[in-house]
Write a structure and sequence with these properties.
The chain is an all-beta fold. It is 3% helix and 45% strand. It has one domain. It has one helix at residues 130-135, and strands spanning 14-20, 23-30, 51-58, 74-82, 93-104, 107-117, 148-160, 173-184, 187-198, 206-208, 217-220. The strands form two sheets. A nine-stranded antiparallel sheet has the order 1-2-3-4-5-6-7-8-9, with no helix packed on it.
């Protein structure tokens, strides 16, 4: 409530989605998490303020036919959003793609690409520019509509269940590592590594998240 007695309210976070034939699509305002880290994620994390976006992807893991079935179950998620009004170019757009592969019951691989582009004061975008921005290297020309800032990451999570026979205090152990870098045309520059582990105690009833963040506590079972 302000000095004039009127109430100013805004939606901090909210999301609606529809699911059909294992495809879910929706939109709203939320923060995103990308990667297997427990205390934080280098690419996208819930530490940032939620932003407006639309999102589409697989509701559950699926397996491709033919020889691709040996890759194991996978999950693909795409999003397109718009950031806030702060910064040199207000209301820049943010898009990204996340692929998770469960190659074995104990191993999960993840690949992500996130691109920040456009914004007020930048060249206008056409409908046909969105796919090149997501899948192509882009342009270093600041006057080009395809000029962007791209981050790539690859990670893995190794889960070792029922380790209590060797480590009496712990039930499971999850080891993870993430490598991230900025994509500059035909190369990946300034690579950065993060790694960690997660060991739930025997005295706690916890479960591992199935959404690609393999070592985050989702809640009590």
């Amino acid at each position: 409530m302000n000095e004039k007695g009127s109430v100013n309210a805004r939606v901090l976070e909210g999301f609606a989605k529809l699911t059909q034939y294992n495809v879910e699509a929706g939109g709203g305002r939320e923060s995103l998490w990308s990667g297997p880290g427990f205390n934080g994620s280098m690419l996208l994390s819930t530490n940032g303020r939620p932003f407006d976006l639309i999102k589409a992807g697989a509701a559950e893991q699926f397996t491709l036919p033919w020889i691709f079935k040996y890759q194991g179950p996978m999950k693909l998620t795409y999003f397109l959003g718009q950031l806030g009004g702060d910064g040199q170019f207000p209301h820049t757009k943010l898009t990204g793609l996340r692929l998770n592969l469960t190659s074995a019951s104990f191993l999960e691989l993840g690949f992500s690409r996130v691109v920040q582009f456009n914004g007020e004061g930048r060249p206008a975008l056409g409908f046909g520019d969105y796919l090149p921005i997501l899948f192509e290297p882009g342009s270093d020309d600041v006057n080009s509509a395809l000029n962007n800032y791209t981050l790539l990451s690859a990670d893995f999570s190794l889960r070792l269940p029922n380790v209590s026979r060797y480590l009496p205090l712990f039930r499971d152990v999850a080891l993870w590592r993430l490598r991230m870098g900025r994509h500059l045309l035909q190369r990946c520059a300034h690579p950065t590594d993060a790694r960690g582990h997660y060991r739930p105690l025997q005295s706690k009833s916890v479960r591992l998240c199935p959404d690609g963040a393999a070592d985050r506590v989702c809640g009590d079972v």
